[in-house]
Amino acid sequence: MEKPTEPSQSESSSEDKERRERVLEHSIPGLFCLSYSHIGSSHIEQGKPNQDYSSIQSNSDTLFVAVADGLGSCAFSDVGSQLVASRITEKMRDSVSRSLSESVEMSKDRVLFKAGPLKLAVQHKSKEIVKHPLAKLDEQTFKAAFIRAVEDVRSELSDLSSKKNLASTDENKSDAGRARNSKGAVTKGTKEDFASTCLFAMTDGKKVFCSHVGDGGIYIVCQTTSELIVEPTKGEALNETIPVTHDEWKDYLKTKVFEVPPQALFLCLMTDGFAENISKNNPNLFFQRIVSEAKEKKRADFVTWLAELNDYYESRGFSDDDKTATFIVLNSLFQEDLQ
User: Fold this and answer.
1) What is the chain's pLDDT, residue by residue, as a tens digit (339 residues)?
2) DSSP string for 192-251
3) Fewer CB within 10 Å: N-end or C-end of the chain?
């Protein structure tokens, strides 16, 4: 029997890198998104997966981006964060698309009953809605749509938990090996086992809608200034955060809507592995270094630098948690874009 061929060192190192890093890229005309994620050393040592996940969706005009951070103490938080990120972006994309479609149809209906100059004005308004779909969307409508999306996801997580309970019962009719509480009683899984935070942003390059449940941070970075959009959501206890699976999550939900500043370079969504060590009072010190590195590098080289940044955080003891940084580029940033 022929002996299996051992993987070469380059193949092994490539597989190891893929296991430790996740890189996503997505673009539409005028907008580009790059997401970089690296598993923390503490999770490598414990044999846990990277519990950060990013998702990027789009329609013809708008990017929809979510970054979720699974709570390490929860059994299936990596599954939860992946589902939260992917489903929130899908649901918000579909919600905006429906809203756009309804707005255009309403405008067309009004055209049928109008005449003369007013008819031309309504037709022009309809075209403007298509050209700038987020222009007429306000924060209250956005917040309501986001709440509906999260409630739908919470229901999906509850269903997923029920299926896991059923599978566990079928596979193990006895109680041996099943999860138990501090008193030794067998416990059933709940949606809380999939606990995850959620950072979300959508933009058409002119207007930005952000929502935030949990820790981490969303930043707007301009040529010379940087700003934390909303304060991270923390619980009452030290190091406690509020996931979307928390029953009172809506009380901790934060949203913000703003026009893109002329000098804006990018939005950045970061999980706590990176964001926790960035000064809330002066994030510009950190982000101007990011700007400098990006302008000097091509995108692929910038990704390599982010890996080095992760190593720096680890070696200096700043964070051994999973680290994710997702950049929504609003204006030319990388070397190939500036040339």
Assistant:
1) 334 344 444 444 555 665 789 999 999 999 999 999 999 999 999 999 999 999 999 998 999 999 999 998 888 999 999 999 999 999 999 998 887 666 555 544 444 333 344 343 444 444 444 556 688 889 999 999 999 999 999 999 999 988 877 665 544 444 443 444 444 444 567 889 999 999 999 999 999 999 999 999 999 999 999 999 988 876 555 467 899 999 999 999 999 999 999 999 999 999 999 999 998 889 999 999 999 999 999 999 999 999 999 999 999 999 999 999 999 999 989 877 776
2) GGG-B-EEEEEE-SSEEEEEEESSSEEEEEESS-EEESS---B-SSTT-B--TTSTTHHH
3) N
Provide the domain count of the chain.
1
For residue 274, being part of any structural domain is answered with yes
The domain that holds 215 is classified in CATH as 3.60.40.10
- Domain of residue 54 covers 9-338
> Is 3 within a domain?
no
3-class SS letters over 279-304: CCCCCHHHHHHHHHHHHHCCHHHHHH
| Residue 302 CB contacts under 8 Å (≥ 6 apart), including other chains | 34, 293, 294, 334
What number of other Cβ atoms are within 10 A of residue 182's Cβ? 6
21 assigned to some structural domain:
yes
Residue 186: Cβ-neighbour burial (10 angstroms; 0-12, 13-18, 19+): exposed
Distances (CA, A) of 182 to 178, 187, 237, 327: 13, 10, 21, 43
Q: Can you read off the two tokens belonging to residue 225?
A: 């200034």
Please give the angle made by the CA atoms of 271, 277 and 278, to the nearest 5 degrees. Answer: 85
Rg (CA), the chain: 23
Nearest residue to 161 (alpha-carbon basis) of 279, 58, 77: 77
- Which SS3 state, helix, strand or coil, does residue 1 take? coil
